[in-house]
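Weekly structure sync, notes
Attendees: PL, DS, HV (note-taker this week)

Item 1: Protein-glutamate methylesterase/protein-glutamine glutaminase
DS walked through the input record. Source organism listed as Salinisphaera hydrothermalis. Sequence as pasted into the shared doc:
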Amino acid sequence: MSAPIKVLAVDDSALMRQLLTAIVDEAPGMEMVATAPDPYVARELIKQHNPDVLTLDVEMPRMDGLDFLEKLMRLRPMPVVMVSSLTERGSQITMQALELGAVDFVAKPKVNIRDGLASAAADIVYKLRAAARARPTARANAAPPARLRAPSVSSEKLIAVGASTGGTEALRHLLEPMPANAPAILITQHMPAGFTASFAKRLDSLCALAVAEARHGERVLPGHAYIAPGGEMHMRLARSGANYTIALEASEPVNRHRPSVDVLFHSVAASAGANAVGVLLTGMGADGADGMVAMRAAGAATIAQDSATSVVYGMPAEAVARGGASFELPLDDIGAKALALIAEAGGAVRI
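Item 1 (cont.): predicted structure, written out as tokens:
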């Protein structure tokens, strides 16, 4: 039998350390090897126990989580799952942590922490397992990527993107070079409620595209990227006459996720067919794989992120294995390829 996944929790709250320990130790194949009340204690425990994954509180005394994360990812990169409060400030700090190299995050309940964490135990275990498989690297302090060039495109062409573990940074790499006249981009990223607004705002500040949380019934337009609201709604592509629109629905989770990439991709296959390009980025599990098969069968070109550049090569691998991916590419090549495929499909119009 394989060795258990070793977890180390860093949190200034004794209650949080106790609850996380109970969740981890009750999960098959996982073990909480140690807990630390602050980064200084954690530093020695990391050397002693060599954990597979670290949970890290954002706000702590003596050294906050971001400072410790920056030092950790520079000196000893390892999978880190942040523990963040469900506040606007907490979500903004979480986005910074993901940029620094954290793999994922767990939302800390505002009230009744004991019951809140207990109800989220399965999700916490899932994220820790995914993180343990990740290959994290610290974000390099590089100049922003050169903006891609594309002709003006019809609103009848669009790109649908799905992502999970490691996806927030992958999406930044995909969207930041996109030109302002890029086709509309619909995005489902697995993320809890309350965090996608900050994520969209951050991307909007970096991109030529207008990036925002999706709203039910709004028209899908070129030059815009729409992110499914985290944890609350599935996002589908719909039609209103000749126009594409967004439909949000609070139906049951699919593949244990809401929003689900499969829900988006199946709707794009039905409503757009060959007028779309599908992109499946890093993530654990298989969400999006069947939907990508449906998109390809409907005539859409499809791209899966390759193993070498995926933080977790799960969802893209499933799409490739099931025959859903037309292409398997490194992250840095996906944006340019998607635009080229849109142009090949007749998406370019003369200005």
